[in-house]
């Protein structure tokens, strides 16, 4: 494509002297062949192009350039074959035939890489990418990226990643649940939450704090669970919490204005707004309904 774009035929806009301009890369043999075919052509140094006079100049130049491009393509393909022989690519994703055939598991990375290679195209019948030998150097430059992406997208590799992600998610969930059972939350020692009233936290939602330790933390707790801890751990202490009752949630007035985001980020707790209180009340009602259902089931079982 880069070679094709370097060859251009531009019709002349001079009605008094019909003709056409030819633009092509400088090569001594190419210029010699051009002058042999177009002896009346003149070089326009200011415009950096050749002028060919005549009413049929456009048609004659188009025919000549098509022939030269075909020749150049053959030379470029031969050069690519020589490069392949000298420094071959060996990969289960590459097959060498009349051209280079690339077949990989689907990957957007592979598709984007192959689209960037000149003259590469998708063959829908064979369901492969075809790359002419003239583009071998470009393919070789992108091959490590292509092969790595293909291996990542093999079915077995995808299955292993899914299993690892599930295991990681299960492990993370177990750490979160273990920390939740401890009913603790790090708060700034110089800005603790009020005790006995519902407040919002970034990790556990709306809770009621019952006590605050005096001793500073030695090390951060579970990584990533308390994102408000941005400074040294010694600035924070443990505050111990419980779930609020429905009556406590109903009695407290929701905050009218939101706390400054910097304040929330720094201390991790804030006065709850209406939406947060409604969400906590909804969950508490679900817990109460589930508990009543269990009590009724146990009572019915005892009577039997």
Can you give keywords for this protein?
single chain, 3 domains, five-stranded antiparallel beta sheet
What does this molecule look like?
α4 packs antiparallel against α5 (136-152). Helices cover 46% and strands 20% of the residues. The model has no long low-confidence stretch (mean pLDDT 84). With 304 residues, the protein is of the alpha+beta class. The chain has three domains: 2-84; 88-152, no CATH class; 182-298, no CATH class.
Low-pLDDT parts are: none
Mean pLDDT: 84
Separation, N- and C-terminal Cα atoms: 85 Å
Q: What is the subunit arrangement here?
A: single chain
Topology:
Layout: H1 2-6, E1 8-11, E2 19-23, H2 28-37, E3 42-44, E4 49-53, H3 57-86, E5 94-96, E6 100-102, H4 108-115, E7 121-123, E8 128-131, H5 136-152, H6 155-181, E9 184-188, E10 198-201, E11 205-216, E12 236-242, H7 246-251, H8 261-267, E13 269-270, H9 274-303
Antiparallel strand pairs: 1-2, 2-4, 3-4, 5-6, 6-8, 7-8, 9-12, 10-11, 10-13, 11-12
Helix pairs in contact: 4-5
Short précis:
With 304 residues, this protein is α+β, with helices and mostly antiparallel strands.
């Amino acid at each position: 494509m880069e070679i094709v774009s370097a060859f251009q035929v531009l019709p002349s806009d001079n009605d008094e002297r019909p003709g056409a301009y030819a633009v092509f890369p400088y090569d001594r043999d190419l210029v010699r062949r051009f002058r042999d075919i177009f002896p009346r052509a003149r070089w326009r140094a200011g415009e950096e192009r050749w002028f060919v006079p005549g009413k049929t100049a456009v048609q004659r130049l188009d025919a000549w350039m098509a022939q030269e491009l075909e020749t150049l393509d053959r030379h470029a393909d031969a050069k690519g074959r020589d490069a392949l022989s000298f420094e071959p690519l060996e990969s289960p994703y590459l097959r060498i035939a009349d051209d280079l055939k690339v077949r990989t598991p689907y990957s957007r990375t592979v598709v984007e890489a192959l689209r960037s290679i000149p003259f590469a195209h998708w063959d829908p019948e064979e369901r492969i990418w075809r790359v002419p030998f003239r583009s071998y150097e470009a393919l070789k430059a992108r091959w490590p990226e292509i092969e790595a992406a293909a291996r990542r997208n093999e079915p077995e590799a995808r299955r292993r990643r899914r299993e690892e992600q599930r295991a990681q998610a299960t492990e993370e969930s177990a750490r979160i649940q273990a920390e939740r059972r401890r009913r603790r939350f790090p708060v700034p020692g110089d800005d603790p939450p009020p005790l006995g009233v519902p407040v919002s936290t970034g990790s556990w939602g709306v809770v009621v704090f019952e006590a605050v330790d005096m001793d500073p933390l030695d090390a951060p707790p579970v990584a990533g669970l308390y994102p408000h801890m941005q400074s040294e751990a010694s600035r924070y202490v443990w505050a111990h919490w419980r779930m609020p009752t429905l009556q406590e949630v109903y009695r407290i007035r929701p905050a009218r204005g939101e706390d400054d985001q910097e304040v929330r980020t720094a201390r991790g707790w804030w006065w709850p707004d209406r939406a947060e209180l409604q969400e906590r009340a909804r969950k508490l009602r679900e817990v109460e309904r589930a508990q009543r259902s269990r009590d009724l089931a146990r009572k019915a079982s005892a009577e039997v």
